[in-house]
Amino acid sequence: MSTSLHSRAGRVRISPYDRWLVVIGALKLAEAALFIALGVGVLRMLHKDLVDELIHLMVALHSDPEGRFASLLLDKVALLDPHRLKQISAAIFAHAGLDILEGTGLVLRKTWAEFVTVVVSGFFLPFEFMALARHVTWIRVGVTAVNVAVVVYLVFHLRMKMRERRQGRR
């Protein structure tokens, strides 16, 4: 049974199914923290020479700033203006806000958060599969596998909850 039970000490006992909701919620909150840090990092680059900063980073990482990939990256970074950086940071913060919403709701074991997470994660899965089809890396495989597992688990959990509610009404 996935509902919480009260123990004699007055503590709420979480079922094994709900524990996974809390774990997924914590992962969403950690992801939100990473996106917030990334958004702040983008905002800190607003009044800096991005090409110069990227060259310094490449040198620090012992990468060739004159290589083919580096040249392509430097060309793309040179096109970024402050307005575009603000747009990028706004999108990053919006994603962080969505992760905070999902994560908080899942940690609190709210059904609406499960629905939101299924919809949002399910929406992004085709894009993850397309990225995998273009170029397979272990990181992409791992992230996609985790996201598929989260969606499958939440769908299973939601169906189980609905079945329990229907049986309880009879």
Helix content: over 70%
What portion of the residues fall into strands of 2 or more residues? under 5%
**Total domains:** 1
Q: Which structural class best describes the helix and strand composition?
A: mainly alpha
Summarize the main sheet: 2 strands, antiparallel
Order of helices and strands: EEHHHHHH
**Tally of strands:** 2
Q: Give the count of helical stretches.
A: 6
Which helices and strands, and how do they pair?
Elements: E1 5-6, E2 12-13, H1 16-44, H2 50-60, H3 68-78, H4 82-107, H5 111-134, H6 138-169
Antiparallel strand pairs: 1-2
Describe this structure in words.
The chain has 170 residues and is mainly α. It has one domain. It has 6 helices and 2 strands, in the order E-E-H-H-H-H-H-H. It has a two-stranded antiparallel sheet with strand order 1-2. A hairpin with a 5-residue loop joins strand 1 and strand 2. The protein is elongated and about 70 Å long. 11% of the residues are buried. The N terminus is likely disordered.
Q: Which terms would index this structure?
A:
single chain, 170 residues, mainly alpha, two-stranded antiparallel ribbon, 6 helices, elongated, disordered N terminus
Quick summary:
By secondary structure, this protein is an all-alpha fold. Helices cover 78% and strands 2% of the residues.
